[in-house]
Backbone:
């Protein structure tokens, strides 16, 4: 995993695929789609080619994973005989904006779809297609923007309970609201001086509208980062010191989303450095957006 992560971060896509090929070849076929495991720990693609096949794309991971890899659905549809995407129901309207021609079905863990000619996890599409982010660049989602004042900053400080180190105290974002309109992308009431102090509804369309209407999105590592990047919105991503594989803490840019800039902690748990850099850069951005 460490060598694969290093290859992906260095954009050595062929090396990363070679590592993934060896890992795939070493798997025990008897463990494929193991019903004794939770869905997010299962593997389903056995390496069979997708060309001319009836393909079922299974979205077993998080909302952000689905959004990140949905970029490859049009390429898959161009090569397969048919494509069905079993995705989180909340995401179906957004995925429909890609226009891939795939059949979109809500994933019901109690009643998953039966296997197709080729089953593949959505996070394996780059491997199955031998594709890189640049082969399917952002933006690839679309949403009608909410009518927000010019220069509105959209803020997201929470990344969920499963990895609390990704989140930061909301009060740390208060200085970013000074002198400019702001909205929160978090559910529930907030004390931040924002236009929606009651919080953002737990509704994907409403969230996407706020993201699409904002002049700048500031977020921690969560689904919001992928949504903003996939919509092509200017985004500032605050990262813990040892972030997920897809973000390189030594870089400020990411090949996955050209409009996203990275701000990683210098030390675990210390948000002082990235917030100081972000505050400085935001002042420049508001003077001359880019």
Residues:
């Amino acid at each position: 995993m460490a060598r694969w992560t290093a290859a992906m971060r260095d954009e050595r896509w062929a090396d990363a695929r070679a590592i993934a090929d060896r890992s795939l070849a070493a798997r025990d076929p008897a463990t494929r789609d193991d019903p004794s495991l939770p869905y997010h720990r299962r593997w389903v693609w056995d390496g069979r080619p997708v060309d001319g096949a009836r393909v079922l794309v299974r979205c077993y991971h998080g909302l952000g994973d689905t959004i990140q890899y949905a970029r490859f659905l049009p390429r898959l549809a161009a090569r397969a005989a048919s494509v069905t995407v079993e995705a989180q129901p909340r995401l179906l309207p957004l995925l429909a904006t890609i226009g891939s021609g795939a059949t979109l079905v809500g994933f019901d863990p109690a009643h998953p779809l039966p296997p197709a000619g080729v089953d593949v996890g959505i996070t394996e599409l780059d491997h199955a297609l031998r594709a890189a982010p640049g082969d399917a660049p952002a933006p690839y989602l679309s949403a009608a923007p909410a009518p927000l004042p010019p220069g509105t900053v959209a803020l997201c400080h929470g990344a969920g309970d499963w990895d609390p180190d990704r989140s930061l105290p909301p009060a740390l974002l208060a200085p970013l609201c000074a002198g400019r309109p702001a909205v929160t992308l978090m559910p529930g009431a907030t004390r931040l001086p924002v236009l929606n102090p009651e919080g953002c509804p737990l509704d994907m369309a409403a969230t996407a509208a706020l993201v699409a209407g904002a002049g700048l999105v500031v977020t921690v590592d969560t689904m919001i980062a992928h949504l903003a990047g996939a919509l092509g919105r200017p985004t500032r991503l605050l990262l813990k010191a040892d972030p997920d594989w897809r973000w390189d803490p030594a870089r400020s840019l990411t090949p996955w989303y050209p409009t996203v800039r990275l701000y990683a902690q210098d030390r675990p748990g210390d948000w002082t450095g990235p917030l100081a850099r972000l505050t400085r850069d935001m002042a420049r951005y508001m003077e001359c957006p880019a």
Remarks:
- The first helix runs from residue 2 to 9.
- The chain has nine helices and nine strands.
- The chain has a mean pLDDT of 95.
- The CA atoms of residues 76 and 127 lie 11 Å apart.
